[in-house]
Amino acid sequence: MTVLRIVILGGGPAGYESALVAAQLGARVTVVDRDGIGGSAVLTDCVPSKTLISTSDRVTAMRDASRVGVGTGGGEVVVDFAAVNQRIKELAQQQSEDIAERLVREGVTVLTGSGRFSASQPGRTHRIEVVDAAGGVADTIEADVVLLATGGTPRVLSTAVPDGERILSWRDVYDLTEVPEHLIVVGSGVTGAEFASGYSEAGVPVTLVSSRDRVLPGEDPDAADVIEQVFTRRGGTLVKQARAAAVRRSGGGVEVELTDGRVVTGSHALMCVGSVPNVEGLGLEHAGVALDEHGYIAVDRVSRTSVPSIYAAGDCTGVLLLASVAGMQGRIAMWHALGEAVAPLRLKTVAANIFTNPEIASVGIPYSVVASGELPARIVKLPLATNARAKMQGHLDGFVKLYCRAATGHVIGAVIVAPNASELIFPVTLAVQRSLTVNHLAATIGVYPSLSGSVAEAARQLMLHDDLD
Ligand SMILES: Cc1cc2nc3c(=O)[nH]c(=O)nc-3n(C[C@H](O)[C@H](O)[C@H](O)COP(=O)(O)OP(=O)(O)OC[C@H]3O[C@@H](n4cnc5c(N)ncnc54)[C@H](O)[C@@H]3O)c2cc1C
Ligand SMILES: NC(=O)c1ccc[n+]([C@@H]2O[C@H](COP(=O)([O-])OP(=O)(O)OC[C@H]3O[C@@H](n4cnc5c(N)ncnc54)[C@H](O)[C@@H]3O)[C@@H](O)[C@H]2O)c1
Fold first, then answer.
1. CA of 379 to the centre of ligand 2 (A)
2. At 260, which CATH number?
3. ipTM strictly over 0.95?
4. In this structure, which residue's CA is closest to atom 40 in ligand 1?
5. Fewest CB atoms within 10 Å of the CB: 65, 94, 372, 379?
């Protein structure tokens, strides 16, 4: 059989995960990447922000140590942001290099440059041009299969253009040489909430500008309430029903003008108002690849675009902007292209976590659907403060909310708000993915005392005699 030639544009989680699968299955794989293997996930977005938050978690632990009888002897907790930023950048770069080395070890060819479809397409195959930093075509490659995995870029409001000094995108913050005296975070989606929480926990005065009446508008309202309480208790300021009309430099700082005329002043503004897909300049028109109504590359559940043998995965598809989903979309694309058995992506089985203090993890059917009665369900919510281990650790903010199908007891979702919710959600994710019931969870003998004990306890409370019959 002939060896399939696969070209992947973009070396983020969608691109590198699919390259590894395709190489393992014997394809001849080339990855073309513009900004560094690992993509924005590793170099500028996910990995750096989670590393920053690991630092702020340490600060939180030191500050809250008095809850368990430990003090700092009156000394302040000091954060050396220059050292923190240096560590973040080195860690991200190292992670990028580790992934690039792995690709090369697996026989993948890695080319640096911007990939695009050539204006002259051969017909049965695809012709890709690799454009170098000077704008010249450095390489031309023929491919039997193309995977588009070009990710996204921070959305820029024309009235609030980042300057990298005072008006920042989330990609600029690691270059700051001074600690913001007063950081204004504009946008209270997942990105805004994480940065507001992270910087606030690290001791920076933060004002969070939220366009709605609560932070994290897409998330569980009970979870958002906890985040607001902890943020304000730490000294953060929330400005609600506040849409930024413009952000400009003023004196030594910035001012954020809201659409209702209010003005919020601070030293720096961090814009977290969403992102846009990287589809410009890809020459999609030459290949006939269609976009959806929001400007993302349209794909089905096995990552096929409108053109046979051209696939797309990750943030450029807008399916669910998570590194985990990007990687799985990419693997599914390669399995499909290379004739392996493949199950379409099931979005409701995806676990997601918001790395605020405390973290919010969720999986399954959204809580709003069961709370409204749209889907009959049994629901239980256990405050973290009822868990013995949480009491010992002094972690009292949060809860475990678990729900199952009313008739059968099948676990259909959970929202967990806890310091390590990202870890606690895993058993529930497995239950949702494998169609387990609350009986299965309740009958599992876990560790005592443990936070995961609340997951088993919630399952026990959801059991009915019928489930045992
Ligand atoms: C602040 C922040 C924190 C996040 N934290 C998390 C988290 O904790 N967990 C999580 O699951 N997700 C997180 N995400 C989301 C996650 O980062 C994205 O879902 C993920 O990066 C998507 O991966 P990707 O491969 O589609 O794209 P990317 O990671 O964006 O990679 C795309 C790559 O393609 C390159 N490229 C673009 N155009 C071309 C071209 N024409 N030719 C060649 N290369 C090109 C880019 O330079 C880039 O290297 C976070 C996002 C943000 C903004
Ligand atoms: N931990 C994680 O896994 C993680 C972290 C960050 C991002 N992400 C992914 O990225 C996705 C996008 O998140 P995001 O927060 O970057 O974007 P988003 O689009 O979800 O949120 C942007 C927010 O900014 C607000 N906004 C827009 N214009 C505004 C203005 N002028 N003034 C004030 N507010 C304004 C919007 O109302 C919205 O609430 C998430 O859904 C998630 O999939 C994941």
1. 28
2. 3.50.50.60
3. yes
4. 114
5. 372
